[in-house]
Amino acid sequence: MRSSVLTTSISRLGLPLSIFGVSLLLLTLVLRLLLSPDRFPVRIGERVVRLSELTAEEARLRTKHAELLKTREALFDEKSVPILVRTEKLRTTALPIGPVLLRIDDIRRSFNSPGREPLSLPRLTFDSTSGILTLGGEMRDPGGRSIPLLASFVDALRKIPLLSSVSEPEYTQKTTAEGLTYTPFTLQLRFHTSHATPSI
Amino acid sequence: MPPLRFESRLPGIVFFIMGVVMTVISAGILLSHTRLFGLKRDTAIMIGTELPALQSKVTLLAAAVEAERVFTEQALASREELASSYIFPSGSPASRVVTSIQEIFSAVSILPGNESLVPPDIIVTKTPIEEKDFKAFPGTLQLRGSFAPVSRMLGVLSYGGQMMVRDVLSTETEQAFLAAVESVSPLALSGAEDFLYLDLLEYASNPDTSEQKFLRDIPTIHLPNIRALVLEGGLAEVRIALSPVAVHLKEKRIWPLPIVRIERVTREGDSWNVDFVAFGR
């Protein structure tokens, strides 16, 4: 009995409610179309601007910024400076042996103290085709610390950014007839392969 | 009113359900629209506050690019001329190479601690090896001296073919440098671009002063990072190799140095043998 009263009430309310629902939905859709946020101005500081103008202006400025960056990159016109372009190509085929030797000398001198130069590098070969620099020498130390000193030298060489690798030497300590300890070594230092010199 | 029969109640029930559904949909649309309004408003405020800075950045960049365009045309034209005469000359570069090496020796041998260096013997082949874009002139340099002065000589020689600060930096470093300057101080951009086109020997003669000219417009907090970019990019090596000999090279007018590619180096004691290739057009 109660359920039939409920369903009867629902059924009588149905048409008016559906008319209301349709009207509300239509009104909502119309409002959504007409009341777009882009149509309304926003106050920013002392200015009142429309959102569509702001977003368009931002997009325009970002595009212009990107174009200016591209223009700047293209300022070096290769066609107007053919000799500079060929010079640059030739330069890039050379391995930076000079700067590396200077860095090695810097490291070598860091081991010096007044009256003492423990690191000796009397043998050296460099071949640009293979990109390998071979150093032969010895680390001398009267206090018996030639091996840890050599290890520090190798570690310092490995920090030279122009080199891709430094080989591990044999750490053997020897003693001279006068009782001084030293460690002979041979190291292979490799340059980064992107610099490898094409042979003429 | 008497209750309706079920069959006659059915359409009404269907309408009721439809009405509820449409009301709920409308409510959902209204809610999302309200949220959209709020979001757009916040976006507008954010853009609005950033817009003046972006406008200023674009204006400064446009001015800098235009100034650089004019400067680049002039700078590159003069460098092209220098390159054609001194770096990559027409015909044999032998005389230029020999003179350059001798002057580098003079500059290095007078530095403290380099007294062991003996004047070098230099041979450059007269008959070149013809290649597609250049002529290669193999040569040999024989030196006597200790590690320090010879490595300095070879260090200076390695700057053959380079004229400007930007020649030392890679393209990636150059672009990272300009991007970093622009991001912290767009006003300093013009100075930074001038710095890249600065003559390398000029820089080596007074590296601190040269750097200061573009660094002065950069906020102090960003100075170490930007300076580190260019130093680690190659200018630290320039300071080590070229700065001690820059004045001498300037006085003797042997800058820019010709391109000399070192092919092989051998050392036994104080005797050094360096095989190299010089280039001509």
The ordered H/E elements of chain B are HHEEEHHHHHHHHEE
Low-confidence region ranges of chain B:
none
Profile the largest sheet of chain A. Answer: 5 strands, antiparallel
Straight-line N-to-C gap of chain B: 113 Å
What structural class is derived from the secondary structure elements of chain B? alpha+beta
Range of strand content of chain B: 5-15%
Helix content of chain B: 55-70%
The proportion of residues in beta strands of chain A is: 15-25%
Count of helical regions of chain A: 5
Radius of gyration over C-alpha positions of chain B, nearest whole angstrom: 34 Å
Number of strands of chain B: 5
Overall residue-averaged pLDDT value of chain A:
85
Could you say which overall geometry of chain B the principal axes of the C-alpha atoms support?
elongated
Q: Quaternary arrangement of the chains shown? A: heterodimer
Topology of chain A as a string of helices (H) and strands (E): HEEHHHEEHEEE
Largest sheet of chain B: 5 strands, antiparallel
What is the structure about, briefly put?
Chain A is α+β, with helices and mostly antiparallel strands and 200 residues long. Chain A contains 5 helices and 7 strands, in the order H-E-E-H-H-H-E-E-H-E-E-E.
